[in-house]
Write a structure and sequence with these properties.
Helices cover 31% and strands 21% of the residues. By secondary structure, the protein is an alpha/beta fold.
Length: 263
């Protein structure tokens, strides 16, 4: 049988640029983007075209930021998709390559962040599991000082983005991907967890705030109901734009009431 034609819509670099400008993305601003390429439609040029369109909209004085997480650098005892035999665990811990911001690929955040990570001039923060990559005028400011024992808290790019009055763009992605909500988890009582990972000197274990996106979809629904959120379309994708600071402040109040996790 012949392959059916793509359903579209056809999306180009200029589509991304023009729609983002229509939605109010401003030249010179700093934008934290969570994205899904497949949600956009049929994209001519794929992730590269989307990144180029984002950079066009932000202009030479703007800054594009994306999550470049590498959660697979973790304890094999916790793996479930798929799990690995217990007899492998010690060997995996002993031989897993440590995080290298120039080499380690992102995982689980989509192909658009991976395109940003490899883009000429991109800078990446230092956390081995929850790094961010940035391109543009304030990229160095965004990624500097990401503490290796602070995944998404006060010493991560999220706190810098909040202070810089950056905005979030959810581009075909849901509120369950909104990393800004995690910063709120560091500002309310939250349990601690031991996190294992490969380090520069071998396997290491650090104590961290326990983070989870559980109920973030409900949190996002209420946030959008109560706070100003710009909504529109880019291709077939739903797009939402809002300040990082608004998301963090709202989540701090909401989580304390609706999802308390104090030990």
């Amino acid at each position: 049988m012949p392959t059916p034609p793509p359903t579209g819509p056809l999306v180009t670099r200029d589509t991304v640029f023009s729609r983002l400008r229509t939605l109010g993305v401003e030249p010179g601003e700093t934008l934290l983007v969570h994205s899904s390429l497949s949600a956009l439609g049929w994209v001519c040029g794929g992730a590269v075209a989307v990144v180029a369109g984002l950079l066009d909209a932000l202009g030479p004085d703007g800054t594009l930021v994306v999550p470049t997480q590498s959660g697979d650098l973790s304890d094999p005892a916790l793996w479930s998709r798929p799990p690995v035999p217990e007899e492998w665990w010690d060997t995996i811990r002993a031989t897993m390559p440590a995080f290298d911001p120039l080499v380690t690929p992102s995982r689980g955040v989509g192909v658009i962040p991976e395109a940003v990570r490899g883009w000429p001039g991109a800078l990446r923060s230092a956390h081995p599991q929850t790094s961010f990559a940035a391109l543009g005028a304030r990229a160095a400011e965004v990624v500097a000082g990401h503490a290796t024992d602070c995944r998404l808290g006060e010493r991560s790019p999220l706190a810098r983005l909040e202070a810089m009055a950056a905005r979030v763009l959810l581009l075909g992605a849901g509120y369950d991907t909104c990393t800004s909500f995690h910063l709120a988890e560091y500002r309310i009582p939250s349990p601690q967890v031991r996190v294992g990972r490969p380090g520069p000197d071998g396997w290491e274990v650090v104590t961290e705030v326990s983070i989870t996106s559980e109920r973030f979809d409900e949190l996002g629904h209420d946030f959008e109901r109560d706070r100003p959120v710009i909504r529109g379309k880019v291709g077939a994708a739903d797009a939402r734009i809002f300040p990082v600071a608004d998301a963090v402040a709202y989540a701090e109040r909401w989580l304390a009431v609706h999802r308390p996790r104090e030990e």
